[in-house]
Amino acid sequence: MSRDHVQSARRPAPADAVGARHEGAPPPGGAESAYLELLARSASVEAYEQPVLVARAEGRAPERIAALERAKLLALRVRGELEGRRRREAELSALFETAHDLAGLRDVDAVLQAIVQRARSLLGTDVAYLSLNDPARGDTYMRVTEGSVAARFQQLRLAMGEGLGGLVAQTARPYVTEDYFKDDRFQHTLTIDAGVRDEGLVAILGVPLMLGPHVIGVLFAADRRERVFEREQIALLGSFAALAAAAIDTANLLTETRSAVAGLERANEIIKDRSAAVERASDVHDRLAELVLRGGGVQDVAAAVAQVLDGKVEFADTADTRPADAADPRSLETSRAEGHAVRHGDDWIAAVAAGGELLGALVLRGRADLDPVDQRTLERAAMVTSLLLLARRSAADAEQRVRGELLDDLLDARDRDPRQLRDRAARLHADLDATHVVLAARLDGPAAGAGDEAAARRRLWSAASRLAAARHGLAAARDGGTVLLLPLDPGDSATEVARRTARRLGTAVHQPVTVGASAPVTDHTAHPESVAAAYAEARRCLDALDLLGRGGDGAAAEDFGFLGLLLAGERDVAGFVARTIGPVVAYDERRGTELLDTLDAYFASGMSPVRTKDELHVHVNTVAQRLERVARLLGDDWQSPARVLEVQLALRLHRLGAAPGRG
């Protein structure tokens, strides 16, 4: 050993070196004890040179130095084994912790993040990341990164087979490169190379993620400098890749299981709902059958269905004159044509029909979310209702015939006993002492054939009979149409009754119906001939409506002005005068004015105010003021051609009625 070398060994050293030399000095027990002490305190590799250097500096015997060299080599071997065991223990511990995380998997992203973090830590790399294949898009994408600083690298999406990951996916084997950009074993692309360059990666190790025979992704470990990855490190990363694949597989199974459970829960809810609906349908079927057997009515059916469907159910009769209870006409017609319940707003409408004839409707209020089974229940209830109505109609046909016979007797048999007529009417809940209107109804337009026309007439008579029964009146088929005797309510008019009846009957038979009405009639039993005269008047109004092209409408004689005098059976002259110039007559009587005389002079002078003032010997302004007063009483259109004719005729009739000897 040279002098300089010995002196350099004896120079003062840093504290660690001094400690190491002191601790590395050969103890009395032999050369091995120094190295055992170094092993015991896990000293650094450099510390194992100190005993040999000290022995040489002290001039120890060659045999002693040789023994120290052998002990050093043996101690380093032991140290290497211990380091390897500690490393394997750390790796096994990390794998065990990862497996434990996998066993309690709740969030697959968290497990994958932990795998990548531990792989990076144990392999001591700058970056670790994991990519997954996307079968839907046919490419692969970054799922988890650890240690990455480049945004473009973290968002890479690559086509299958590109880059180092593509080579791993194709061969299903690990691949490693010490210098990525100098390695031509795999396909370089501008996208991948740009991302790798942004991240500054050089050495990259990639191992496949396998599910059975299929590669689903790649786990990577990478450094920003050249590096050789040992076989143990490749195996360790492969173990982490297996755990990552298991985590993904477990997550997929959990997702499928949860989806299946959710599907089963939904199916179970549907089954429960359907079961409840079937039970409700069975319940309503039993109730409806019981109602039919015990002779229940339409309202009983509506009440039973309302209780089962938990809603308000109403029966709307097409012959009913109360518009508030009527169903929507368009929805009602759709339901009748299709044979199913139809939704209208928050209501459901099921037509009650038989043989093409609309009898009414069942209306379920406020149930926009009706279940299909419940919808079928409502439709079945409508069918039962139609059966009940037909049964009731069969029973009512006799009553309708009786009503028709009574009306026929009022029209034809004028010598009937009044008391007997009253008794017959009372049994039918009709009051012949009340004021009535006689109506003549006829279908508007010819039918397709003789059979169809006869059927249409029967439907008209049936609908008129139901309407008459509902109004406590009478109806009979007559002269190719139908005649009705309906009571006149206080405040009502013959015109309103005629129009309402035309509308109701037209809706019931699905065809326009024209209705003519008579003036109000009273004392039918005492004067049966009044009913026949009123019927003749109603028919004349009916013919007038046809001549005027007003088919499908309803009107009375009072609606035709002076033409009504020709239509009215008793020539109601006083009524015509009152309707036409009554306000002027009343004004003259109250005020003592001469408006009627002025009108006579005005018409006699050719409707010239100048000639009228000469006729009356008054100033022209007086004539103008009187005519202005007449306009306020009769309306601004009183001088229109049609009104002028009526006013002149009324004036003549008024003068004739006021002449001496006339009542």
Structural class: alpha+beta
As a whole number of angstroms, the C-alpha radius of gyration is 56 Å
* Approximate shape: elongated
Q: Are there runs of 5+ residues with pLDDT below 50, and where?
A: 1-29, 565-570, 659-663
Which bin fits the share of residues in helices? 55-70%
Total number of beta strands: 15
Side by side, the strands of the main sheet go 3-2-1-6-5-4
- Mean pLDDT metric: 77
Estimated share of beta-strand residues: 5-15%
The number of distinct helices, counting runs of at least 4 residues, comes to 23
Outline the biggest β-sheet.
6 strands, antiparallel
Terminal-residue CA separation: 171 Å
Outline:
The chain has 23 helices and 15 strands.
What does this 3D model show about the protein?
Helix 11 (298-309) runs antiparallel to helix 13. Strands 3-2-1-6-5-4 form a 6-stranded antiparallel sheet, sandwiched between helices. It has 23 helices and 15 strands. It has helices spanning 3-10, 15-24, 31-40, 50-57, 62-103, 108-123, 151-154, 163-171, 190-199, 231-293, 298-309, 329-338, 372-412, 418-427, 450-470, 494-509, 529-547, 563-567, 573-591, 595-604, 609-616, 620-634, 641-658; strands spanning 127-134, 139-146, 157-159, 175-177, 203-211, 214-223, 312-317, 342-344, 347-354, 357-365, 436-443, 474-478, 481-487, 513-517, 554-556. The radius of gyration is 56 Å and the shape is elongated. It is an alpha+beta fold and 663 residues long.
